[in-house]
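Q: I'm building a small set of examples for a reading group on sequence design. Run inverse folding on the following structure and report the sequence directly after it, with nothing in between.
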């Protein structure tokens, strides 16, 4: 009996490799997004701390220092806006990568199902072949005795 051979094994292996690469890329982008979100949250926290500090010291602070606080808070606001854009762009990249991963997984799954179906067909045909051999053997023995 010949061994089961799936003619699209190379394609299936390629699809598996593509899926693995897409998973790695998705994981990397997700990690980068988390890092950028942490930076953004750090800016938000720092801005709130500075606002609180400015409000607490408003009575004891000179006008020059108040202007510095305001300028610093404005610069921080600009950094936050830039970082928000970075986060939005990273989210877009992550979503795109996720879609690519889902598509690669679907393509791989198609070939896996095809392989399963072909293997079941192979097993069925093997069983039919074995049954035929057994039937021939039984009928040969019956004819030889009779």
């Amino acid at each position: 009996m010949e061994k089961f051979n799936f003619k699209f094994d190379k394609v299936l292996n390629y699809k598996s490799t593509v899926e693995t690469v897409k998973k790695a890329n998705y994981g990397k982008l997700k990690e980068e997004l988390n890092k950028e979100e942490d930076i953004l949250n750090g800016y938000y926290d720092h801005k709130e701390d500075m606002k609180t500090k400015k409000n607490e010291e408003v009575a004891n602070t000179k006008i020059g220092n108040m202007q510095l606080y305001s300028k610093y808070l404005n610069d921080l606001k600009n950094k936050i806006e830039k970082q928000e854009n970075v986060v939005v762009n990273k989210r877009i990249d992550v979503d795109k990568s996720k879609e690519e991963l889902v598509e690669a997984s679907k393509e791989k799954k198609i070939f896996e199902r095809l392989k399963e179906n072909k293997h079941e067909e192979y097993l069925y045909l093997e069983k039919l072949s074995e049954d035929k051999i057994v039937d021939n053997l039984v009928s040969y023995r019956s004819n030889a005795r009779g």
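The helical segments are 9-56, 63-145.
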